[in-house]
Amino acid sequence: MNDFRIPFGDWVEVGLSWMLDVFSGVFSVIRSGMLSANDSLVWLLTTPPWWVIVIVLSGLGWWIKSWKLALGTVIGLVIIQGVDQWDNAMQTLGLVVVATLIAALLAIPLGILAASSHTASNILRPVLDFMQTMPPMVYLIPALVIFRVGVVPGMVATIIFAMVPGVRFTELGIRGVDREVVEAGEAFGASRGRILRQIQLPLAMPTIMAGINQVIMLSLSMVVIAGMVGAGALGGQVVASLNRIDAGLGFEAGISVVILAMYLDRITSPKKKANQR
What we know:
Blueprint: H1 8-46, H2 50-64, H3 67-82, H4 86-116, H5 118-133, H6 136-147, H7 151-162, H8 164-175, H9 179-187, H10 192-226, H11 233-244, H12 247-268, H13 271-276
């Protein structure tokens, strides 16, 4: 009985080896696509002078929310430039944006599926629980085996870790739509697809956006951890500060992450919250 041991780790390694043998071509295409998307966005953010990006991002904040957000954005981004973390911050922003877009593209359809089928919801729920409670650093190991060192394994681990609230909030938002409104659409002969597009999704949008907001926040927290596998950017700076026990560098990178998180949080928080303020 003392020798009892479930070889779960061996099963995982066998599964990973099988996936590498069978899907190596698919993984190569995914790696190239994600790398190209990230490099293109980072090039777009780092090529113009830094003050141009400050004007663009603060103008975006003013247009979407208010002049107060625009002013806060200017102050925050000037601080990032002042602590010499501009390029790293833009690389982090690019990584977060690409990871969030991919996570949202995966999460919203899964949330719609879960909302339309109790069977799908019951199957997805334990999977989502697993994805949300697994220590995030564990995701880096298989991602590293499959996609090698660099930005891509960090991005893949970020997507897996961050997409859960997107699925849950999408399901919650669609299930929360007033049943009488849906029945009115059915009474007028609307198809299920039309009811989804023109009734359920618009009414559920504030909840879905709250889920996307959570995806962004989790992506930012995971991006820093992804610095351990060579993702670079602000996460790489935090890892370097740990290796050198450089508190100054760690706080400069940390405050840059906080500023980016506050900007992305305010700009993607539901409109209703802004009106309440």
